[in-house]
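Local shape tokens

___
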Amino acid sequence: MPTTPSGRICKRDLLVALGLLIQRKEPDLIEVTEIFLQLPVDARTILLCSLAILSLLQPLPDMTDPTRGRGAVETLLTRLQAVAA
């Protein structure tokens, strides 16, 4: 994940992803799961870690409220962890 001294850009990138995740439908989750299974193990680990970080983020001004999307993050994280096992 790209980093900056403040980490703000990375947080914004994660929050943009959260905005998309909140709008997802079941076919989207199926597609994400299929793509996830095609990734190398290290990329899967990075993705799972990014989702874990996203679940802990606090709100930023003018961005999607991450607390509102925690259920969507948990659903996807649980699903991906199950297929990765």
Remarks:
- Helices lie at 8-22, 26-38, 41-56, 70-84.
- The chain has one domain: 8-84.
- The mean pLDDT is 83.
- The first helix runs from residue 8 to 22.
